Amino acid sequence: MTYLCDIPGLPTPVMSHRRVTGWNPAAPWDPAAPWDDCGVSEPQVPRSEPAAASETDAASGMPLGTQLFRFVVTGGLSAVVDYGLLVAGMAMGLGYSPAKALSWVAGTVTAYAINSRWTFASDGSKRKFAAVVVLYLLTFVLQVGTFTLIFPPLDAAWGQAWAQFAGFVVAQGLATTCNFIVQRTLIFKQ
User: Fold this and answer.
1) Tens digit of pLDDT for each residue in 132-170?
2) Of 35, 51, 53, 121, which residue is the least packed, with the fewest Cβ within 10 Å?
3) Cα distance between residue 89 and residue 33, in whole Å
């Protein structure tokens, strides 16, 4: 198999921690080197000015906007899983709290699986996983508690379908905001 870094005359990507950090067209090719760093282990040519420290996550080198976009996309997918199972559980006769608890677990597992790698570029350490489990347990109480408190009055005022939707949006919004802030500033920051 031929890789782009094997073709003479093409710029060689300079890799560090498996992500491109700059270009060095004069870098030598070492056939014994792992394919993903094309024979160069450290940047030879400095990058353009990095984003300000407040805008770039130290752990992944990813700008805040990119992380936030990925977190929202992942959250949207996880919310579809969560909300879909909430509605299905209640339609099958589960009470609103057990249905919300089960749907939350499925949505949370989906969110962690995607966010840990894609959004925060985590190394998958057991310590970070344990920290996320603790955070998710706390946000479980926040989200299910919020939904449990606001569903009955919303149901009485608007009916079950609108109460499910409004209660879901409010509870999910609170939990998502807390999750992003804690994961970005504490768990996945080096």
Assistant:
1) 889 989 998 999 999 999 999 999 999 999 999 999 999
2) 53
3) 53
Pick from 54, 74, 82: nearest CA to 120: 74
Q: Model pTM greater than 0.70?
A: no
pLDDT in tens, 44-61: 444 444 444 445 545 557
SS (H, E, C) the chain: CCCHHHCCCCCEEEEECCEEEEEECCCCCCCCCCHHHCCCCCCCCCCCCCCCCCCECCCCCCEHHHHHHHHHHHHHHHHHHHHHHHHHHHHCCCCHHHHHHHHHHHHHHHHHHHHHHHHCCCCCCHHHHHHHHHHHHHHHHHHHHHHHHHHHHHHHHHCHHHHHHHHHHHHHHHHHHHHHHHHHHHHCCC
Give the rounded distance of the alpha carbon of 42 from its chain centre: 27
